[in-house]
Every structure is written in C-alpha cells, then in structure tokens.
Amino acid sequence: MARTPRPPVIAVMGHIDHGKSSLLDYIRKANVVAGEAGGITQHVAAYIAEHNSRSVTFLDTPGHEAFKALRERGAAAADIAILVVAADEGVMPQTLDALAAIQEAKIPFIVAITKIDKNNADVEHAKNSLLEKGIYLEGLGGEIAYAQVSSKTGDGVSELLDLVLLAADLHELTADAEASATGFVLEATQDPKRGASATLVIKDGTLHLQSFVVAGDAYAPVRFIEDFRGARVESAGPSAPVRISGFSKLPSAGALFSIVKNKKEAEALAEENAKALVAAPLRGAATDGITELPLVIKADVAGSVDAITHELAKITHEKAAIRIISSGVGSVSEADAKSAYASGAAIIAFNVGTDAIARDLAEREKISIFPFSIIYELSTKVQELLTASIPSVAVEKELGRVLVLKNFSSSAKKHVLGARYVSGVITVGDRIRITRRDVEIARGKILNLQQARADVKEIKVEGDFGMEIESRESVAYGDEIVAFSISES
Q: Do the beta carbons of residue 297 and residue 346 sit within 8 Å?
C-alpha cells in the first residue's frame, strides 16, 4: 500500500509554570476551526490545530507515563516535542527532566522561549541557560530551532508552528491510510455513563466502525468514534486523536492498540497480551526494618494515576517506603475511605472531589485526604509524609562509667553504694544501666552523689565516692554502672 504524508503529533513539555498550558490553550483557541473550539468542553487529552492549511495534532496530557511505557516497547508517543523555557526563569530542574524524556524517546525537539511579554523577561539569559545545559540553539553554535513566543499576545506562535511543520517535513512522516488502524492509548477514564473510555492516537492506518479495538489486555467494540471535539465520525485517519468507549477494563496509558474483526478475536488477543504484560505490582512488600507509608490514590484520569505512580516511585528513603494500597479514577468514594481506614492510609486526591459519605467518614475516623491539582506539590507532600512516618530511633550516648566497690544497704528499689570513678561525668538524675561481667542486669537512675561526705551534683574526677541509685535489681562488688542519655534520630 502507498504511504503518504501524515500530520505530525506534537508533545509540549517543560518545567511547571513555564507556560505549557497557556501555549496549548492559545494554539487551540487561535488555530482550531472557528465554531469547533467552543465544542471542546470535556477533558481533552489531544486536539488537532490547523496552520497554513495543514493539520497538527497536539497532545495535552498531565503525565509522561505514556511516553515511558511506549519507550519500553521501542515506540514514541510524539513525533516532535516542543520544550518550553520561560524567558523570566530560564532552564529549571523539570526542564532537564523533560529534556531527558525527549532524548530517551529519540524524537527531535524545538525550543519555545515563552513569556517574552513579561516585564522581567530576559531572553538572552534564557538562551544562555540553555547553552549551559548543552542545548545548542541555531545561531548560537547549534542546530536546535527555537522561537520566542507569548501566549498572551500570540507573538511568535505562528513562527513556532512554521518550525513544527518544517521539522515534520524534514523527518518525512508517513502513513498508510488504507491499512487497519494502529497507535497507542494516550489517556483512559472511567465515564459514569459510558464506562471505561480511552483517548487513542492513531499513528498508522484508519479506524472504522463495526470493528474491535484491543489495547493491551483491554478491548472495546467500535460502536461509535468521537473526534477531539466530541463529535461522532464514521472513521479517523493517521495522527487523529479519537475517543472510544465501552472497554472491558481501563486500558493502560501507553498501551499499543490494534484492530480485530470480532469479539472472539478481541478476547483472544487481550488474553494473550495479558499473559505478556509484566506490570509493576501496586502493593509493595514490607521489608524488615522499613516503615511503610500506605496511600490510596484517586485521580481524574488514568494517565494522572500513572504519572503520580511514576513520580512517587522516585521518592525513596533508606528507612521507609511508599505502599500504594489502591488507585483508581474518579472522586474519593466511601469504599476508598473504608480502605484507607482499614490500612491506616492517607488518601491522595488529584483533580477530583470527595463524595459526601466519604467526607463524613473521613472526618469521623480522622482519615487524611490531601487534594492536589499540581503533581509536583503532591510529590513534595508525600515526601514530607514519608519522612514523618519514620519512627524515632532512640540512641543511647554514654556519659560516664563507675565501678561498684561495696553495697552498703539495699531496699526494694534503692541502693546505697561505694564506687570508684572510671571515666566521663555522672550526674544526679542520670539514667543508668548496671552490667555484671559485661552483661546488662538492670537499669535505673542516680538519686544522690556524695564526695567527702558532702552532697554533690556530679562526679568527674578520679577517686572513690558514695552514691544512691534506684534499681529493682541488687548491686554487688565488681558491677559497673554506666550513666547514659537518650536522643532520638
């Protein structure tokens, strides 16, 4: 079959608050055909924009899990990436994370220097910060194309889209429109009316009605196809994002999909894929000496759950580990609250609310529910919770040591002794442990000290002295008394 040029699929990536969403919003509003943009009311994981009479598909999704999952299968979610860098801040830590993801995906990228309209914008500083990190721009010793843009005024956006189309032409993106559709799952959600639904991006071929789509171990009949506006269409071609509902289960973000003719073939292929899937377990096994932080995760879409799980996997501690009790899509429910109560877990709610019954149960049983809309704030909070979950370890520090010479008198708990200084400083009120031939036989407390028949607060010089201690065990000649303090770490 003949292969023909197809529209590029673009991912916009970069540091939080550097203008990714604003840039996507501007492109959507300015470049989606008039009358169509207003129809986008649901969560849109991808959309098609027009520029110079050509289509460009933009991915608009919160997580990178699809990128990670596809990389593991040797595929790429996007054809080209736009790396955003704000003119007022330059390269930041998450810029480098995004760059690493782009480089691992082995796709070309263009730099968008955003927020050039701000009073404190410093484009030259942004360029220099890119150079310092080995990102060599055109005209500055490198070949990476860039554009200076403002999502507020629209300045530079057209030039950025020109660069995107030029990059697409250079890489000769093609597809066979006559073939059966293949691609990947960008996003999946649990729709209360339609059940398990997913946004698919077609990378090759054409999707038609009256077939079955299989994505990993999930499958769905293609009874209707929705385009990015929510409008029903009879077919969708290469690079198009579509919405399919009625999956047997929520497909995973990043799962590759293919088309089969009937339900029997779909079930067989899904079962075969299920056997091949090697998924990381949600439930972490406890390790001796390691404290667990149990969490219940609820999010707006499956991609968010994947992204959160991916971010939480980065949080490590030698004395503690995160354990995900359960995760899912949708608002925090009574079942979630009960699960959290039974396991002592905190609930992480990302871009979702809490049902009234669940909220009442949480208030009554003191279950912590933490709502978030920014994944990096979520990560910071979980790091704090993990650190706080580690129990304090009592560390004993030796203060002083003496040798028992004689036991003058003993009662049930008090003993008057003659002793000889060995080392350190011992003080009235100190905790003590009593050892006999290097084996601890009892613990107690120093009640009084006497030197030259006068009461003193401490002993810190060589010589013999008297002492009164509190201990449940009898003390004898040759025993050692070690004074110590306890600190927590």
A: no
Residue ranges of domains in the chain, CATH in brackets:
4-174 (3.40.50.300), 182-276 (2.40.30.10), 291-389 (3.40.50.10050), 394-488 (2.40.30.10)
Using CB atoms within 10 Å of the CB of residue 186, give its burial: 0 to 12 exposed, 13 to 18 middle, 19+ buried: buried
Quote the pLDDT of residue 286.
42
Q: What's the Cα-to-Cα distance from 114 to each of 89, 127, 346, rounded to whole Å?
A: 10, 12, 37
b/e string for 221-258 if b means 16 or more Cβ within 10 A? Answer: bbeebbbbbeeeeeebbbbbbbbbbbbbbbbbbbbbbb
Q: Which residues pair with 322 in a beta bridge?
A: 293
pLDDT confidence of residue 343: 79
CA-CA distance, 106 to 328, in Å (whole number)? 31
Task: Give the number of other Cβ atoms within 10 Å of residue 395's Cβ.
Answer: 11
Among 386, 391, 387, 392, residue whose Cα is nearest residue 487:
392
Tokens 């699960």, located at residue: 339
Nearest to 241 by CA among 4, 449, 49: 49
Q: Single out the residue of 2, 7, 61, 65 nearest to residue 31, CA to CA.
A: 7
User: Six-digit token pair at 443?
Assistant: 């613990």
Distance CA 468, CA 270 (A): 78
**String of b and e for 21-53 (b: at least 16 CB within 10 Å)?**
ebbbebbbebbbeeebbeeeeebbbbbbbebee
Rounded Cα distance between 24 and 57, Å, is 11
* C-beta separation of 116 from 88 below 8 A: no
Under 8 Å between Cβ of 295 and 372? no
Residues 6+ positions from 114 with CB-CB distance below 8 Å: 18, 19, 22, 23, 84, 85, 86, 87, 149, 150, 151
Find all residues with CB under 8 Å of 55, minimum gap 6, and list them.
Answer: 7, 48, 49, 239
The span from the CA of 56 to the CA of 47, in Å, is: 8
- The residue length of the chain stands at 489
pLDDT along the chain (489 residues), means of 10: 88 83 85 46 70 90 59 73 92 86 87 93 92 90 92 93 95 92 87 85 94 94 92 94 93 88 94 66 47 89 81 84 86 88 89 91 90 89 88 82 94 91 95 91 94 92 94 91 84
CA atoms of 114 and 20, how far apart (whole Å): 9
| Exposure on the CB side of residue 100, measured as CA atoms within 13 A | 9
pLDDT at 64: 52
pLDDT of residue 371: 94
- pTM of this prediction? 0.62
